[in-house]
Amino acid sequence: MTLIETLRTEARAAPESGIVAVVNHGRLREGLIPLWAGEGDLPTPAFISDAAAKGLADGETFYTWQRGIPALRQALARYYARHFGKTFAEEEFIVTGSGMHAIQLAIDAIAGSGDEVIYLSPAWPNFAAAAGVAGAVPVPVTLDQSGNGWSCDVDKIAAAVTPRTKLLFINTPSNPTGWTADRETLQAILDLARQKGLWIIADEIYSLFHYGHGRAPSFLDIATPEDRILFVNSFSKNWAMTGWRVGWIKTHPALQQVFENLIQYSNSGVAQFMQRGAVAALDEGDGFIAEQVERAHAARDLVCGILGETGKARFTVPQGAFYLFFRVDGLTDSRKAAFDIVDNANVGLAPGTAFGPGGEAFLRLCFHRRLDQLEEAAHRLAKWMKTV
Questions:
Q1: 3-state DSSP call for residue 83?
Q2: Which residues contact 298 (CB under 8 A, 6 or more apart)?
Q3: How many CB atoms are located within 10 Å of the residue 131 CB?
Q4: How many of the other CB atoms lie within 10 Å of CB of 182?
Q5: Signed CA dihedral, 236, 213, 365, 179: sign only
Q6: Is the dihedral of CA 377, 382, 384, 388 positive or negative?
Q7: Is 180 within 8 Å of 173 (Cβ atoms)?
Q8: What would the DSSP string read from start to end of 197-262?
Q9: 257-287 in b/e burial notation, b at 16+ Cβ within 10 A?
Q10: Chain CA centroid to CA 383, Å
């Protein structure tokens, strides 16, 4: 028996990221324009970094509150009051070591060996992989696509529910499709969860990256305090803090101790000086978010315009998030195509195969970058499409 054969089956089965595989292939290429990862090109703004640096200089390097320092949990309450019109107590927030950590803890709290968890696909792959590592069975329900864009058939979700189903994972606005649930769809999903006694993990990380009027619809608009919903989120996207690895869970105050215990036995809390930066992000960062959303909106329109003119790219203009999920006429293997695009167009994209059922024929382009780079990348891609 080899060393690897002595590990848990679930650990051995954890898939390699289809995105990282392409990144590793092309990350050192000179002049490559990297549009494969889910992040922008702006560094964390100074008002956030300076607050963290002050905390570090002040000696905030000791063990701290497991569930997050009170100042940060209070700032989260203020954030939700401003953007969602809801009043929450600080006891309803748990600070985590990234949005991914928040998702892992949420899964650990609800689902385990043999339990089924439903998610909407194409999807950011980490949820399904994390559920699998926990011993649960991820069950994809594919979004529908037509000339009217991406949509969610709630009847398909209901048909996937079995006696072993424990939760629904709903990411809206969606990575990678940009699909954004309207209030009616959210209500139908919540009604189903109530009827079947299911939990919902609501990943609304891109709520403010919405290209309609104001933020995207949220389960918070329709939920009651007793609904079985865990909201997972991250500081990564809104405040250009992807490398910081700080996130949070919005939960019922009755669950605080459970999640504090899970924090204790995972990362034992987020560094206090980093939390000081997160406080500054929440309290001082609304203007920065607005600038980012405006910038991404212009970038979306630029890329869609150039690729649309090729006559070979097929896509729905995304309603939210900052990705273009598109097909190319004649392309059948998106993984092979992503490597070929690196080699021959010097542009980094994520293959649709990385995003599960329904995504195989697509490529994902992150357009959250400055316009001159995006224009050059789009023209390179347009040229490459002529070879397909």
A1: helix
A2: 371
A3: 29
A4: 15
A5: positive
A6: positive
A7: yes
A8: T-EEEEE-TTTT-BSBSBSPP-GGGT--TTS-EEEEEESTTTTT-TTT--EEEE--GGGHHHHHHH
A9: eebeebbeeebebbbbbbbbbbbbbbbebee
A10: 30
Q: Which of 229, 207, 33, 234 is nearest to 126 (CA)?
A: 234
C-alpha pair distances (Å), 343 with each of 22, 27, 361: 11, 11, 19
- Cα 52 to Cα 67: distance, rounded to the nearest angstrom: 18
Which amino acid appears at position 31 of this protein?
G
Give the pLDDT confidence of 143-189 residue by residue, as tens digits: 999 877 899 999 999 999 999 999 999 999 999 999 999 999 999 99
| pLDDT for the residue 236 | 97
Helix (H) or strand (E) holding 280: helix 272-284
Q: Pull the structure tokens for residue 267.
A: 């990362």
DSSP 305-351: HHHHTTS-EEE---SBSSEEEEEETT---HHHHHHHHHHHH-EE-EE
Prior bond to 176 cis, omega within 30? yes
pTM: 0.95
**Helix ranges restricted to H, 145-208:** 154-160, 183-196
